[in-house]
C-alpha cells in the first residue's frame, strides 16, 4: 500500500493502482449506476487532456518532457489501455469532478513512471499542477461529452442510412404487390406493399438528416472557460489556442463559444440532440410495431409478411415463433424516450453558473446513442433484410375487402358506391360481383378501374366538367 493525501486527510492506496486518493474517495461515495462512464467519454476526455498539454507546452507553461509524457499517457488511454483504472461510477455528484480526477491521476501516474518516478509520488508529474493545468472539470467535462457525442452521432447516422437502404430494397422488391391499406386498424384503400416500405424508408431518411445536422449543435465548446466561463486561472493566450489544439486532435470542426459563461451553465444543446434521438426512437417503435402487426398470426392474423425466424418462441407452445427482433427494437425505443426524459430533467435542474447533473446527461445521451446504433444494425441484419411478402395473402384480402369500391367513387358517385359496398357486405360478395350483377359498369371498364395501376396511382385522370 502507499499513502496519499488531499485536503480532507490521508488514504491508503493499493501500491500498484494507477489511480489515487481522489478516485478512492469517489469509489467509496458513489455506487449508483454500478458501471463506469462510457468509454467514448473517457476517450474524449483523454483527447481534451492531450490538447491542453500540447497547448501548455507550445505556450511555455509546461516543459516538453512533462508534456510529452502526459501526451503519451493520454494516447494509451485513448487506445483503450488501462480501462480498469478509470473506474469511478458513471453517476456521481460534482458535475463530473470524480471522472476528471480519475483521469488526472491515471495520466499523472503513467507520465510519472515514463519519466522515471514511481506511482503515487507525483514529484515529476502532478495530477492537478500538470495534467489539469489551466483546466476545470466544468470546461473539460462538457467539452469531452460533446466530442464523444459527435463521434457516436456519426456512427448512428451510418446505421440509420443502412436501415433506410434495407427498406428501400424492399420497396423495390414489393412494388407490384397490391394489398389493403388500413386506417384506425380498419380496411381503407388499396396500396402496394412497396409503398408501405417506402413510407418507413422516408421516415428513416428524415431521422438520418436530423442526426447529421444536429452535430452542428455540439461543435461549440466552453474549453478555456475553467470554473464558470470567466477563464479564471487560465492565461488568455491559452484560452484562445486550446480549442484549436483540440480541433487538430479530434479532426472535428470545433469552435470556442463566444459566450463561455453561457456555454458553461446552459446545456440545452444536449436536450436538442436528445429530442432528435427521441424522434428516431418514435419512428423505430412505429415501424417495428407495424411489422409485428402485418406479420401477426400467421394463420389467424394479418399474415401479409413473414419475419425471419431467429429463435423458438415459446417454452410451452411447440412451433411458435415470435417477432422478437421487433420487440427488442420497441424496447430500445422506449428506453431512449425515457433517457430523453432524464436528460430534460437534468438539464432544467442546472442552477446559476453550472449544471451539477452533467454525469446523468452524459450517461443517458451517450447510452442512447450507442444503443440506437446497435439497434438499427440488429433490426436491419436480423429482420428487415429477411422480410418475405406473402403475395397470396395480400391478394386474398384485396379480393375479400369491400374497400376497393373507393376506386369507383369518381365513376359511380359516393351514394351508389356506398350502396354497392353495403350489398357486398350483406351478401358476402365481392365488389366486382355486385357491380357486374347490377350492370353498373362493363367488365372491361371495371377491370381497368380496379387494376393495380389505377388504384395506386397518384390521383385519377378524368375530363373536367
Arithmetic mean of pLDDT: 93
Determine the number of helices (DSSP H or I, runs of at least 4 residues): 18
Strand content range: 5-15%
The structure class reads mainly alpha
CATH topology of the largest domain: Fumarase C, Chain A, domain 2
Radius of gyration: 30 Å
CATH class membership of the largest domain = Mainly Alpha
Shape designation: elongated
Low-confidence segments: none
What count of structural domains?
3
Secondary-structure element string:
EEHHHHHHEEHEHEHHEHHEHHHHHH
Query: Largest beta sheet: what is the strand line-up?
Result: 1-2
Distance between the termini: 96 Å
CATH architecture of the largest domain: Up-down Bundle
Write structural notes for this entry.
The chain has 465 residues and is mainly alpha-helical. It folds into 3 domains: 132 residues, Fumarase/aspartase (N-terminal domain) (Fumarase C, Chain B, domain 1, Orthogonal Bundle), CATH 1.10.275; 250 residues, Fumarase C, Chain A, domain 2, CATH 1.20.200; 55 residues, Ribonucleotide Reductase Protein R1, domain 1, CATH 1.10.40. It is 58% helix and 7% strand. It is built from 18 helices and 8 strands. The strands form 4 sheets. Strands 1-2 form a two-stranded antiparallel sheet. The chain has a two-stranded antiparallel ribbon with strand order 3-4. A two-stranded parallel ribbon has the order 5-6. The N and C termini lie far apart (96 Å). The mean pLDDT is 93.
Amino acid at each position: 500500500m502507499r499513502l496519499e493525501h488531499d485536503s480532507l486527510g490521508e488514504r491508503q492506496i493499493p501500491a500498484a493502482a494507477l489511480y489515487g486518493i481522489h478516485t478512492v474517495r469517489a469509489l467509496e461515495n458513489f455506487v449508483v449506476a454500478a458501471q463506469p462512464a462510457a468509454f467514448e467519454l473517457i476517450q474524449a476526455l483523454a483527447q481534451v487532456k492531450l490538447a491542453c498539454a500540447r497547448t501548455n507546452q507550445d505556450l511555455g507553461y509546461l516543459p516538453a518532457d512533462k508534456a510529452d509524457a502526459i501526451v503519451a499517457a493520454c494516447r494509451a488511454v485513448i487506445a483503450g489501455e488501462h480501462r480498469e483504472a478509470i473506474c469511478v461510477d458513471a453517476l456521481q455528484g460534482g458535475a463530473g469532478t470524480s471522472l476528471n480526477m480519475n483521469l488526472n491521476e491515471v495520466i499523472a501516474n503513467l507520465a510519472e513512471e515514463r519519466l522515471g518516478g514511481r506511482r503515487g509520488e507525483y514529484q515529476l508529474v502532478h495530477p492537478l499542477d500538470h495534467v489539469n493545468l489551466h483546466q476545470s472539470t466544468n470546461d473539460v467535462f462538457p467539452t469531452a461529452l460533446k466530442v464523444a457525442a459527435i463521434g457516436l452521432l456519426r456512427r448512428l447516422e451510418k446505421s440509420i442510412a443502412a436501415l433506410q437502404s434495407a427498406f428501400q430494397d424492399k420497396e423495390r422488391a414489393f412494388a407490384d404487390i397490391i394489398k389493403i391499406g388500413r386506417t384506425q386498424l380498419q380496411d381503407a384503400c388499396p396500396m402496394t406493399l412497396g409503398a408501405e416500405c417506402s413510407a418507413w424508408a422516408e421516415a428513416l431518411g428524415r431521422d438520418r438528416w436530423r442526426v447529421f445536422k444536429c452535430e452542428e449543435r455540439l461543435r461549440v465548446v466552453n474549453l478555456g472557460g475553467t470554473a464558470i466561463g470567466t477563464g479564471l486561472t487560465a492565461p488568455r493566450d491559452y484560452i484562445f489556442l486550446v480549442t484549436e489544439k483540440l480541433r487538430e486532435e479530434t479532426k472535428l470542426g470545433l469552435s470556442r463559444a463566444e459566450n463561455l459563461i453561457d456555454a458553461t451553465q446552459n446545456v440545452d444543446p444536449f436536450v436538442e440532440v436528445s429530442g432528435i434521438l427521441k424522434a428516431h426512437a418514435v419512428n423505430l417503435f412505429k415501424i417495428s410495431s407495424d411489422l409485428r402487426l402485418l406479420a401477426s398470426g400467421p394463420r389467424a392474423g394479418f399474415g401479409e409478411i413473414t419475419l425471419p425466424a431467429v429463435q423458438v418462441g415459446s417454452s410451452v407452445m411447440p412451433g411458435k415463433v415470435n417477432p422478437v427482433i421487433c420487440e427488442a427494437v420497441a424496447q430500445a425505443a422506449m428506453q431512449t424516450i425515457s433517457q430523453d426524459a432524464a436528460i430534460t430533467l437534468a438539464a432544467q435542474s442546472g442552477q446559476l453558473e453550472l449544471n451539477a447533473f452533467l454525469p446523468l446527461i452524459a450517461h443517458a445521451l451517450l447510452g442512447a446513442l450507442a444503443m440506437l446504433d446497435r439497434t438499427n444494425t440488429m433490426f436491419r441484419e436480423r429482420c428487415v433484410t429477411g422480410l418475405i411478402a406473402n403475395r397470396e395473402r395480400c391478394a386474398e384480402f384485396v379480393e375479400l375487402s369491400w374497400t376497393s369500391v373507393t376506386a369507383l367513387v369518381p365513376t359511380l358517385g359516393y351514394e351508389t358506391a356506398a350502396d354497392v359496398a353495403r350489398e357486398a357486405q350483406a351478401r358476402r360478395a365481392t365488389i366486382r360481383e355486385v357491380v357486374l350483377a347490377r350492370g353498373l359498369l362493363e367488365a372491361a371498364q371495371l377491370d381497368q378501374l380496379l387494376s393495380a395501376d389505377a388504384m395506386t396511382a397518384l390521383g385519377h385522370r378524368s375530363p373536367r366538367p
